[in-house]
Each structure stands twice: as C-alpha cells, then as structure tokens.
C-alpha cells in the first residue's frame, strides 16, 4: 500500500484458472490491468506516484516484467537476451528487481 492508499496485487478471473494484475483505490475501486497477451499477470509493488511493477506470463519460461501508470498504461522490460520481472518500485520511478545476465532494460 502506498501513501495514497493504492493497493496492488492479483485477482482470479471469473470462469477460468487465470489471474490478472490489479490496482485498487478507494475512489476508483479495483482496476484490472490485463495481461501482456498471455493468461496471467500480477502486480507486486507500487510507489507513491502510483507507478506499478509486476510480471506477466507471455508463454513458456520466465515472467515478463512490466510497469504501469494510469496515464501511460503498460510498458515492458525485455530484449532478445531474456526477460526481466519487476519486483519492487522506488519513489524515484526506477524498477527494482532481479535481472537475467545479459538483459538490459529498454525504456
């Protein structure tokens, strides 16, 4: 939960075994952030500016990292060497988390 009361996580989708990243606020309720084209996604952290980071399954292998803002939608950290999953978020708007060797963030 950030200083604005925003909460992030994941919610099961109705009628299936998939789950989607979500953001909840007292004014807007729960917002489904969708996926990156796969079946599952999850939000794992947010900063006080409301930027959210998490991971999404796009196929076999590791999760693809993403960041999301209400104004800008979803951005993905990936290149041909591998996939990065966001694990945390600093208040300076930087993503925090492990990175596979040889991967660089694009953005």
Q: How does this model look, in words?
A:
The chain has 107 residues and is mainly β. Helices cover 0% and strands 46% of the residues. It has a 5-stranded antiparallel beta sheet with strand order 4-5-6-7-8, with no helix packed on it. A 3-stranded antiparallel beta sheet has the order 1-2-3, with no helix packed on it. It has a two-stranded antiparallel sheet with strand order 9-10. The protein is globular and about 35 Å long. The C terminus is likely disordered.
Strand content: over 45%
Unreliably modeled segments: 78-87, 93-107
Largest sheet: 5 strands, antiparallel
- Give the integer mean of the pLDDT values: 76
Given the C-alpha coordinates, what overall shape results? Answer: globular
The chain-level structural class is mainly beta
Q: How many β-strands, per DSSP?
A: 10
Q: What is the CA–CA distance across the termini?
A: 25 Å
User: How would you spell out the order of helices and strands?
Assistant: EEEEEEEEEE
- Residues in helices, as a percent range: under 10%
Radius of gyration, taken over Cα atoms and rounded to an integer in Å: 13 Å
| Helix segment tally | 0
Q: Could you give the order of strands across the largest sheet?
A: 4-5-6-7-8
């Amino acid at each position: 939960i950030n200083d604005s009361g925003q909460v992030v996580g994941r919610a099961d989708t109705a009628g299936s075994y998939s789950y989607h990243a979500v953001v909840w606020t007292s004014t807007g309720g729960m917002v489904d952030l969708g996926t990156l084209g796969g079946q599952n996604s999850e939000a794992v952290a947010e900063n006080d500016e409301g930027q959210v980071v998490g991971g999404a399954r796009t196929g076999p292998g590791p999760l693809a990292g993403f960041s999301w803002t209400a104004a800008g939608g979803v951005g993905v950290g990936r290149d041909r060497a591998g996939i990065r999953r966001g694990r945390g978020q600093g208040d300076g708007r930087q993503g925090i988390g492990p990175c596979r060797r040889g991967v660089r963030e694009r953005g």
